[in-house]
Design brief:
There is one protein chain. This protein is of the alpha/beta class and 637 residues long. 36% of the residues lie in helices and 16% in strands. The strands form seven sheets. The protein has a six-stranded antiparallel β-sheet, covered by helices on one side. A four-stranded parallel β-sheet has the order 3-2-1-8, covered by helices on one side. The C terminus is likely disordered.
Amino acid sequence: MVIDIEFGKHVESSFCGPRFGVRGLRKLLNVKYGPLLMTALKPMGTSSDKLAEMAFAFALGGIDIIKDDHGLANQVYAPFEERVTKCAQAVRRANDITGRNCLYAPCLNAPAHLVLKHAEFAKRAGCGAVLMLPGITGLDVCRALAEDDDFNLPIIAHPAISGSMLGGGSKNEVRGFSHGVLLGLLPRLAGCDATIFPNFGGRFGFSKDECKDIQKACTSILGSKPAIFPSPGGGMTLERIKSMRQFYGGQDVLLLIGGSLYSHSNDLTANARHFLQMSGRIDAYGPNERPIDGLNHNGITNLYSPQQQDNVEKSNLRTNISDREATASRFESIFAASPAHLKQRQSPSPHRLSYYDDDKTKVTPTKQSDRYDDNHHGHHRLTTTPSHHAPMTPSSAEVSELREKNAALEKKLDELTSLVAKLAHSADAKSSSANHRHATDGPLEGNHSKVLIKKEKKFMWNRVEREMYKMDGGSFKGCSRVELIGKRGESTNFHVRYFEVAPGGWTTLEHHQHEHVVVIVRGSGYIQLGSEAYAMHVGDVGYTAPGDVHQLRCAEEATDNFGFICIVSAERDRPIEVDASEHLIYCESVSGNHLEDAIRKSLQAQAKHRAAQEKLKNPDGSYAEGSACEWRPPGKK
């Protein structure tokens, strides 16, 4: 078996190697930190128009590289030139909206005499990269394209057919090339900027050591050749992102997620943004994107459309005007109660206190009966009058009232001053202890004491990722999950999680034999317990007994997400989903005509949502691989 290759100086320098490499790709994509993200257009048999539609959705969601499925060539349902033209246009259109530079990489899966012609066409069509199959077209074609100054596009290598050169196995009995040489060193030498390979734990039998060898071959020193991106794939799911980031270092790796990205939900753009978030990327928005109040109903960033932008600006303008009017009213009340104003009003001086309103109307005090208008919610407003009216001396009762108001304002000012001083002292104390070691300095993994610090103004915790609620998008809507305590080696008999439900969303309607407790910490919503629904607000606590059908949901008209801490036994049985239509029949049989309309509408919406997801089923009847709820059967730690 060829374990490694050492090149002489002259041999190594005769190859130009990657034109972009890690740094070049990052610069081209304008992604300075975090892993790069890639997905594939599939399945086979999809038309060019549909593939272009998918490419647009993925690019809009922030995917860095969108490649053809490696089986796409020049099939009648998606001819090469038609497919490449439409997909490249779709990605450019998305880039114009987001300001990102997503790259579309068509597959150059063609006979030898057409490969370079297809590469030239991809360049003219505006593609950002190409996908090569060295096991079919040869490594030297990659070299020729990488050295072509006119071509000047990143090259991604796919391992199709290359497995035969590994000898058909993945252990010591391999008699061909080692994994690092075949899928790392040789593509890099031939000028590829990234190399795809089957990750351990996927559909193929690659081990961790073999994957680590590939990564090493991609990134170790090779003369003047730049490092390239290792791209683990081969049936990886969104659930595997965390382990892949930990294994490959979380930075210079190109994560490839395919089918799992489609099955998460019907909204490919939202799925792409979820992929971005789970990968720990901090560039949640493209240069042309702006969030509306941080997160939308799915916990994913929103974009302003031109009409939304216009409405928002008008709303802000109305708010600013309202705020100015309220501020002016408060100022008039404070000024009227001030000692300086009282003194001036009691003065026999012929000079009257007056000012000019925005419309240039002169405003001045008049006779006592007209001086104040008390019909504006308790706010005293000066009324307009001709300037020849003489000032009137206020009554003793009025003076006493105004002095009381002024004293109250001075007291409030003292309280605010004291509060500011306390805050400043707290900040100084925090600064003085900055060099002290805290529990947050230690690693998250392991059975040791630790503190998870909540991020300011966000229901997220430092170093803890938000995850998808479950893989099956049909049983829930607009939910996310954060594992806090219990899944990182702690010896607790319970798990602590934070769940969040967007307005109009719901958790799975289900029952199980373990109990759990929820504590509401954000917004408000409802908990369904059997046939009854109960409103819950911040601070409220809910208990679900074994076997009870339950669900938490957030009203469509809610203005904030519904967030709650859930405490559950570490050893628990698998939840059983309850059909929303059947549960509606049960609720109607129990409550009759007294069933709340909100319960009926919610269950009807859930049944409709579930029906829409039926087309996502796998042949075996499942909706996705694995289970993101990460249940743990009894007796297992």
